[in-house]
Amino acid sequence: MDLKPQNLMVFDGRLKLIDLDGCVEIGTSIRTTDTWFSFSLLYCAPEFARFVASRRKTSIVASSHLDAWSVGMTIAEVACLKPVLYSQYKHYKDMEATPGAGDLNFMEWLGNSKVSPVPEAFKVFDPQLFAFLSDCLCVQEPEQRMSLRRCAAHPYIAAGRVQRMAYRVG
């Protein structure tokens, strides 16, 4: 539930997930009164943002759709070297007198946005990556978001494109 670049490390050439305090089992009900869960604003899915910002909804069930969004935001950040939603987040933080109000306004914006936040510049940089992220992982509605298992079979991933790109970058 708290997937982000800072929680990924490479050990002996293998990617490892660290800082597991935000992890919950799929199907776990999370309530607004719970104090044990953690999340990062810039990587949380729109439906989670709606849950946090809502004064009416008291719980949400953890699903793989939440992680799929976070993985998409993480991949996008690795590609453009900064959090994709940072400028929008900063806009809301700068508009408000208190940090909490800026966070809430950002969450409301994210939860109600109708378009994928994948930068249009990706269309020029890597059109296939843009399509993969905007059509598969960074889709506003969770039911339309591709599962991570299905993503592994997606032509962009299955063709080894990501591995080849990593060799060029690193």
UniProtKB/TrEMBL annotation:
Coiled coil: none annotated. Residues 1-157 form the Protein kinase domain. One of its GO terms (biological process) is signal transduction. Gene3D superfamilies: Transferase(Phosphotransferase) domain 1 (1.10.510.10). Pfam families: Pkinase. PANTHER family: CCR4-NOT TRANSCRIPTIONAL COMPLEX SUBUNIT CAF120-RELATED (PTHR48011), MITOGEN-ACTIVATED PROTEIN KINASE KINASE KINASE 19 (PTHR48011:SF4). This is Protein kinase domain-containing protein. It comes from Noctiluca scintillans (Sea sparkle). The lineage of its organism: Eukaryota, Sar, Alveolata, Dinophyceae, Noctilucales.
